[in-house]
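Technical note accompanying the year-one report. For the benefit of new consortium partners, we illustrate the data format agreed upon in the data management plan: each record pairs a sequence with a structure-token string. No post-processing was applied to the example shown here.
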Amino acid sequence: MTIPPQHDGEPGLPDGNDPKGNLPAWATRNIAGSELSDVSLAAFIGPRWERSYRKKFATFRADASFVPTWNWSAALGMPFWFLYRKLYLAFGVFFVLPGVAFRWLTGTETVLTLQNVQLPENQSLLVMNFAIFASALIAAGGTGNWLLFRRARAATKLAQLQRLPDADAQVWLARIGGVNRGGTLLFCVLSLMLAVAQVGA
């Protein structure tokens, strides 16, 4: 019987000593989130870490690759929740993209005011607007946790690169993370004023 040659732990060979073996990069688990400590994440997230986000981030800490999860606040508060959580790029996308998609798919510049939606010829626009809003809601709810985790991971890595003392790192993470109450409140007020203006138009 022929005995297969032994590789003595040579890297890249499937001898049981190399955890990745000959698997390509895309087939190996991304564990980039596993080194994040509870202390750092708690400082970044704030008071809701223990009650909510510890459980929501568990999947990403084991494997930082995108996995759809659900966040009701992100879904129902879209795009306000993204601004509140300082996810400014995502806020811009969810604030602008539904309107752009509506104009692109319908080919119209019609503003759906309270008066316009009552017109029979605009019923199809109302249905399309609802479909786009529902799609954006699902996308926001499904990606919110992961986007927030990515920002927490990036902030933690930046704090590590700066070699800050632990106490200073926690203060810095709390300042970079947390929530943006003032900006969100201002945006809510402006949105309400715009909605009132459209109703009165």
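Partners are asked to follow this layout when depositing records. The longest helix spans residues 123-161.
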